[in-house]
Amino acid sequence: MIRTTLAKFGCAAVAGVSLLGVTTVAAAPDAVAKATPPSVIILTNSSSGSTVVAVKGDIVRVKLTATGGVHWTEASVVPSTSVPPLVKTSDGVTSTGSSVTNFKVVGYGSAQLEAIGTPTCTPSVCPTYVVLWEATVDVPVVDPPPPST
Predict the structure, then answer these.
(1) Which of 22, 40, 60, 85 could tie 103 with a disulfide, CB 3.0–4.6 Å?
(2) Residue 76: its pLDDT value, please?
(3) Ramachandran region of residue 11, left (φ > 0), alpha (ψ -120 to 50) or beta?
(4) 145 located within any domain
(5) What angle do CA 131, 135, 140 make, to 5 degrees?
(6) How far apart are CA 122 and CA 119, in angstroms?
(7) In this structure, is residue 49 part of a structural domain?
(8) How big is the CA angle at 108 (ends 105 and 143), to the nearest 5 degrees?
(9) Cβ atoms of residues 120 and 96 within 8 Å
(10) What are phi and psi for residue 40, nearest 5 degrees?
(11) What is the pTM of this model?
């Protein structure tokens, strides 16, 4: 009703509504908020052990490169008792042993990510060790303000 009234009567209707004790905010048509693309947080081999802060809507990309004879699995969220704030959207492992996994931030809280690296076996030797890659993504309940410019 207020929107229809504003369209018919303009500013006079806003003044009349304000007199009734109802507070309204009318934005000019050209002041519509523009959607910003999500930030992409990239975690790599050297990010193991780190903690990053994300906000809802961000993309967390784990890119692990096969080096030193280690092939990686795709990253995954370590199971916990709470609902993780991340959802896996895509993953893949190349024939050379590198992996890329994408997660979308959909909630608040903290999630631990992990991937496992295994050595490359040859016909005569297969080393018996694994490498654990892990990182933590924190999504605070109150999103941090945008960086000041």
Answers:
(1) 60
(2) 96
(3) alpha
(4) no
(5) 170
(6) 10
(7) yes
(8) 85
(9) no
(10) -110, 120
(11) 0.70
Query: How many domains are contained in the chain?
Result: 2
Task: Describe the crossing of helices 2-9 and 11-19 by its angle, rounded to 10 degrees.
Answer: 130
pLDDT average per 10 residues of sequence, the chain (149 residues)? 42 41 47 72 97 95 94 94 92 94 96 95 86 96 66
Domain identity same for 49 and 74: yes
Separation CA 39–CA 55 (nearest Å) = 9
* Enclosing domain of residue 62: 40-139
For residue 62, give the nearest of 83, 79, 40 by alpha carbon: 40
Cβ contact 70:129 at 8 Å: no
Q: What is the pLDDT of residue 147?
A: 72
Map 56-111 to HEC letters: CCCEEEEEECCCCCEEECCCEECCCCCCCCEEEEEEEECCCCCEEEEEEECCCEEE
Work out the widest C-alpha separation in the chain, in whole angstroms.
87
At a CB cut-off of 8 Å and minimum separation 6, what does 76 contact?
88, 101, 113, 114, 115
